[in-house]
Each structure stands twice: as structure tokens, then as C-alpha cells.
Amino acid sequence: VPIERLATHPLDNMQNKASWSNPNIVLPRDLYGAGRKNAKGLNLSISGHLNPLLQHMHSYETQQWSGRPWLAESISETAGSVAQIYSPFDQQQRVGEMQWTTPAQVDAALDAAELAFPRWNATPVRERAACLRRLADLLEEHMPELIALCAREAGKQLADGIAEIREAVDFCRYYAQQAEEKFSTAQLLPGPTGESNELYLTGRGIFVTISPWNFPVAIFLGQLTAALVAGNTVLAKPAEQTSLVASRCMELIYAAGIPRDVVQLLPGKGAQIGPLLTSDPRVTGVAFTGSTATAHSINRSLAARDNVALATLVAETGGQNAMIVDSTALPEQVVADIVESSFTSAGQRCSALRVLFIQEEIAQRLLEVLTGAMAELQLGDPRDPATDVGPVIDQQAKDKLITHIEKFRQSNQVIAETHLTTALSKGFFVAPVAIKLEQLDELDSEQFGPVLHILTYKAAEIDQVIASINRTGYGLTCGIQSRNEQFAAYLDSKLRVGNLYINRNLIGAVVGVQPFGGMGLSGTGPKAGGPHYLLRYATERTRTINTAAIGGNASLLAQSDENTV
Fold it and tell me: Where are the alpha helices (DSSP H) in 142-199?
């Protein structure tokens, strides 16, 4: 048999096809089926995507945004103090000004939210969901502006900014879909003839959402839209470092048709605004993303309220996230995931890699490749496509990280570091660094920045490695790098974490695909972007009707009395 009949080049096969399209492969926008449209993406490697984005962003290069509390129309908006906002990558670049909320405005906002709740809760779910879908469309329409504002106010690099807006869009559409599936109709429960039994979901009341600065659009809107579509009224308290972008998002929220008394923005310092909200007896729930210490403080404040309904707390906190690399892993492949997990967003993600465990047999080679990769990273203006790592959020964050790094530098434990030029002295830049540890107990807290801690282990010590990770009490993300499926399965069964990733990076959980959230010190659950999340914002109710009170069960009489086999 001629060899040509047995083997042909794949390109030759393609040339002979009548059509190059495959109806079995869906387009990206249809990835999640007919019920939910995928968020619009941009490929920065394609000039046709990158150049128009940069041109749009350039128009906002010197834009001065003005933010303020967004309150119900019936509230007198007495002005609070005003703060000037400067960029974390250049403290000489003014971004705009932000007006803070007064205590009187907080109290009035609570009054308005309480009055609005019955009306909003009675609004059909399809209308609430439609508002979220309109908001998603508006976010995509205004993506260049929001990316520019995230870069200037939060120091977000371009790829991070795109992912941020896409995640927010996904939250809106996913929660809209979930609400229509779970809230639209009552669930008929089994029971005896002569009565009907139904279970249905409604809103709880007033929800306070307290969001962080590291995802100023995605988490801010993720918390808020979940609470809204479940039927609650919302008082949103954004991080003070990123209140401008939150204020801009509120304009889009109202443009999407959500009433002003249903969702209100209360920007200000957490220590001043937070206690006013969490101590108020009218608040029925709090959604919080931030530090474990602050989550405990909120929990105590809610619990201290006497003679009021017990409030719901949905908390997503930090993690001492680890990655375990065994001797079967390929260093060149693993290092790409390590660098991305540790230094993307300047390490300022809850999911970021903090501790790397490497099996001794490959440690030397892997560290050589990692050192080389770190040397190639570029720090700089987050709006520049060539920038890999932007700034940390503020001076306090920078000082904390530098203190931690210098402690280990004095004991010669810093083994790799990215070069930081003096040209970046106007911003809050911290060079990515790798620190060698002897044991995990050397860390007493999470370091929220581009700092990677490295330990080596012997194959026989893997159970001690697992125990040390579990002993931290955190349980957010963890990575396994191994080509040994049995080894990976063993670790999977022992590690107590919410999100486990095998042979990939630890970051970038996708809504509805990788629901995100931890356990233990890393949060209460349920997972954001998952099928159980909206239930935490709802109250379950049952309705039982004695149908026999108005006659017998006519459906029984209508049934055939013929026996069927």
C-alpha cells in the first residue's frame, strides 16, 4: 500500500474540505449556551484589538473624574468632605476628587432602603434580571473608560483591566440567569392529596456590600448585583482607594434602570462608615471581601445587636495560597504558572500564590529558570502594553511589603528579585521577589503583594507539607504541578482548600466555570459565581394550601381507573 494512502498532511486534509467551519465548535460568545452570553474579550496580541483600545484609553489620559455618594432622590445630599485622588503609579498625577459620605447621609440612606425593599422585592424577577443584563451591556460599551480609570486609580495593568470588566459582565449575566431559574417559580413539594405545598425564595431586606480595592469593578458589582437580583435593597460601601470607579459604575447601574432608592453608594473611610452600617438593626445581611481580621470585626458588630433578626454574613477573605511541585513537573512549563500566579496584579489578588513547595530533585533547575523569568519582568505604567507588573495600591501597602522583604534580606534569604529603576520612584512600586524559607511557620501573616516564598521538600515528606498548609487555617487556593495523576489525586483528597488547580496557574477564576471562595480563615462561602451564591441572599418560604377545604381533589376523579402494566 503506498505510504500516501496511509498518511496525509493535516493541511492537505483541510484544503480538501468543502468548508472550514465546524458547527460543533461554538463561537466564544456562545460558550455558555443560549441562556447566557459570554463577555466580550480583547486579544492584546492582535493589533486590531490593542490599537483601538489604546486610542480610546488615550482620550481619558488626563480626564478628571468626580465621585460622590449616590443616594435616593428623596434624600438631601448635604456635602461631606472631599478627598483628592492621585494615581498609585505616579503620585503627581491627579485622577479626580471624591466626596465622602456623612453620618446623616448613612442614616437617611438606611431609611430609604427600608422603604424601598417591599416594592423591589415584589418586582418580578424577570425585570430585575433584565436590569442586570442591561448593566452588562453598558459595562461592555464603556469598557475602555473603565479600564483607563482602573489603571489610573488602582494601578491595574491592561490585561488585568480587561479581565476585570469581563468578570463584572459575567457576574451580571450569570446572576440574572440564576435568579430566573431559582426565583421565578415556586418549587412544588410532594405531599398527601388534598393540599398543595410550595417552596419559594424572596429577598431578605437591606444588604450592605463592602468591596475591596483590588477588584474595584468585578467584586464591587458581583456582590451588589447578587443582592439586588435576589430582591434586596443595597447600600454599597466601596474601598476608599477605588471609590471613583465605584461612583462611575453607579451611573451605569442607574442607566440600566435600577432605581436610586434600591441601590445607594456610601463612599468613605471604612472605620467611619462601616460601624454605622453593621450596627444598624435594619441591616439584614453583609457581603464583605477583605481581610480576615475585618471580617471578624464585622461579625462581632452584627452579633452585638440585641433583639433584632440574626444577620447573614457572606465573607471572602485572604489565603496563604500554596503550590506543590513534584519531580515529574517540567520546570519551563511550571515557571510560567508560578510567575503568573505570584506577580500578576503585583501579587494583589486573594488567589495569588504565596508559598511554593518544590521537590528537592528539581529545585535547583526550577529556581534557575524562575530567576531568569523574574529578571525579564517589566515594572512600569500599567497603561503601557509592555508592563508586566504595576504598582501596589498605596504607601501603607508598600511599606508593609518592604519591611517584610528587608527582614529576610538581612538573613540572606532573598534568592531572586526583579530590577526596579529609580524612574519609578514617584509611584508605589515593589519589585517582585523570591524568598527562601526553611519552614512555613516563618510566615505569621499573608503578604499581599509580589512576594513569593519558597521551600523544598523530600518525596517522603509530602504528608508534612500537606499538614503545614492545612495548619495555617486558610483554605482559598492551592496548585499542584505533577504529571503523576495518582499523586495529584492524593493531594486533592488531603488539602483543605476551596479552589484546587492542577497543572495551571492559581488565578483568574471564571464566573460559572470556577466558582470562587474558600473555607476556614478564607471565608464563609458560598462561592461567588457559583450556583449556590444567590441562595445566601434569599429567604426561603413555604406555602401550604388545604385544597380539600373547597372540595375534593378533582384530579383524582378525572384519572382513569384502568390498570396499566
Answer: 143-154, 158-183
For the segment 173-206, what is each residue's pLDDT rounded down to a tens digit?
999 999 999 999 999 999 998 899 999 999 999 9
Rg (CA), the chain: 26
Tell me which residues are annotated as active site: 316, 350
Quote the CA–CA distance of 497 and 469 in Å, as a whole number: 10
Residue 296 grid cell: 471578624
Residue pair 347/450 in contact (Cβ under 8 Å)? The answer is yes
d(C-alpha 208, C-alpha 361), whole Å: 51
Give the SS3 label for residue 234: strand
Do 229 and 259 contact (CB within 8 A), yes or no?
no
Cell of 25: 465548535
Of 10-24, 148-162, 242-256, 317-331, the range with the lowest mean pLDDT is: 10-24
Alpha helices in 192-327 (DSSP H): 218-229, 243-255, 270-278, 292-303
**Residue recorded with cell 511550571:** 334
Least confident of 18-32, 359-373, 509-523: 18-32
Contact 97, 84 (CB under 8 A): yes
Instruction: Supply 364's cell numbers.
Output: 535547583
- On the CB side of 96, CA atoms within 13 Å amount to 22
What gap in Å lies between CA 444 and CA 423, rounded to an integer?
33
Identify the band that residue 486 occupies on the pLDDT scale cut at 50, 70 and 90. Answer: very high
Strand order in the sheet with 82-87: 65-67, 90-99, 82-87
What is the per-residue pLDDT across 380-431, written as a single tens digit (0 to 9) for each?
999 999 999 999 999 999 999 999 999 999 999 999 999 999 999 999 999 9
d(CA 342, CA 506): 9
Sheet strand arrangement including 283-289: 263-265, 233-237, 206-210, 283-289, 312-316
Per the CB < 8 A criterion, the answer to whether 285 and 277 are in contact is: no
Q: Kindly report the CA angle at 408 between 403 and 412, in degrees rounded to 5?
A: 140
| Sequential DSSP letters for 389-448 | B---SSHHHHHHHHHHHHHHHTTT-EEEE----GGGTTS-----EEEE-S-GGG--S---
* pTM for the full predicted model: 0.94
**Amino acid identity of 190?**
P
Alpha-carbon 255 to chain mean position: 24
Domains of the chain in sequence order: 41-317+529-541 (3.40.605.10), 322-517 (3.40.309.10)
Q: Taking a C-beta distance cutoff of 8 angstroms, is the pair 170, 510 a contact?
A: yes
Is the backbone of residue 228 left (phi > 0), alpha (psi -120 to 50) or beta?
A: alpha
Phi, psi of 234 (to 5 degrees): -130, 135
Tell me how far apart the alpha carbons of residues 565 and 559 are, in angstroms, rounded to a whole number.
Answer: 16
CA distance 150 to 241: 11
User: DSSP assignment, residue 38?
Assistant: P
Distance CA 358, CA 26 (A): 39
